[in-house]
Amino acid sequence: MALLKIENLTYTYPDTLLPALENINLTIANSEFVLLLGNSGSGKSTLLRCMANIIPDFYGGKIAGQILIEGIKLNNIKPQELASQVAMLFQEPEHQLVKHRVENEIAFSLENLNIEREDMRQRVVEVSNALNLASLLDNNISELSGGVKQKIALAAALVRQPEILLLDEPLSQIDHTAAEDLLNVIRLLHEEFGITVIIAEHRWDSLLSIANRVVFLEAGRLAYDGGVKDYLSWAKTNNAEILPTIPRLFMAQDIANLPINVKEAKKTLASYNFNKAQALSKPSLQQKKELSNNSLISFNKVSYHYPNKAVGVKNIVHNFNDREITAIIGQNGAGKTSLLKLIAGLIKPTKGQILKHDQSAKIGYIPQNPDDYLFLPTVIEEVTYNLTADEEKNKAYKFLELFNLSAYKNSSPRDLSFGQKQLVVLAATLATKPVIICLDEPTRGLDYALRKQLGEILKKLKADGTTIILVSNDVEFIAEYSDNIIIMSKGEIITKGNKYSVLTKATFYAPQVNRLFKNINNNILTFEEAYNFLKPTCN
Fold first, then answer.
1. 4-242: CATH homologous superfamily?
2. CA nearest 319: which of 291, 299, 346, 339?
């Protein structure tokens, strides 16, 4: 008998005409690892919510078809029993955290399941150790970073020891090292304990070697359901842009099996003959340009402490220069968001001085969670809220077109996917013509195509005179589109410089193509550079 079966599932959100899911049929066996893919707004989160039985009860709308677990309809399973079988991590973990202390949050679901106190304590300790949360058990959740909150929400799901684990963008807010640790935990639970995992994730490069099945949704319909290797062939034929960096790099070559990760790609490269000129080639001087001397904002020994005395940033000395894209990276809780808020003027330094050289320069700030920004009934009202003249409002419509949001202009922004909400906030911010834009995790919830589109927009804004400062855990994105990198740890700047001087020396923050060519040509950071490097070898 199938563990989970979905039959003719169709669902439409309230006040919408088109279904978010249409005639979905899936059978998932025990201990499968299913990678749920699709473009932003394709219905991935909706499908996971249906599996968790929170649609339509918490979202309204119309639903048809049925979902069964071990032959029993979801609606016929008691909530307490279902909670012990199915656990879900939401795309916006803030929405599922209800306690103040970390330990209480992790243990909360066990209280509802009537787990004995001794067993409860053991489970909490084991899960918190596995996710590196043990030192934070007494902390107040509201004072922690978004990435740490995401790990807490995951811990609260794992502690229930479910048969089915539903994960919606679990890597979206955590740094690369934490993502690897988290994936190792999920892999262990799947391989050693037989937990069925269904995961929707836009940063899915590292998941290809773990998953044994791919389900791809397109506009709410099932477009592909099959093995990982077959999926790469299907994607190559149907839409190459949905592939991650490594398989896409080798797609143009006559290779029977596309490599899915750096390890496999290195084996493929072992048969190539690279000439000396290729091995010594370097990016152009224009690409490796040094920092500009025209500063917009200067930090002079700036420190910030939160009301509970926790360190936000410590002794920051840095000049943010005009017409550059600066990326701030580092582990969760390193102070990245605190630094971004100081730049935007949302918080004031405890010590030191921040000098804004052009007092009239408008600063736009886009938070990590778009729901913090959205409050109006429709998308078009959000985008035009700060605009007055009709001419300016007409320009705002161009941003809707730019981000493929025109069809949703009269929709409630809260009914959109997380990635689409991100784009609404970005469109609303750009419509005000800021000189400096601060973005906190701008690629969160965006598929590959939208991330590329966002990157090209940022490059165009930079060319037009805008300064862009972003916080991101997406090393592939920042390697492709940033000029300069700042690495932070424990509130301090550890290193900074142009992206080549920083990322080519990095280990865990190096993008995949740099890891791939590390012993061949360490100057390669971007997909385009890697593709051009391979050209002479393939001809």
1. P-loop containing nucleotide triphosphate hydrolases (3.40.50.300)
2. 299
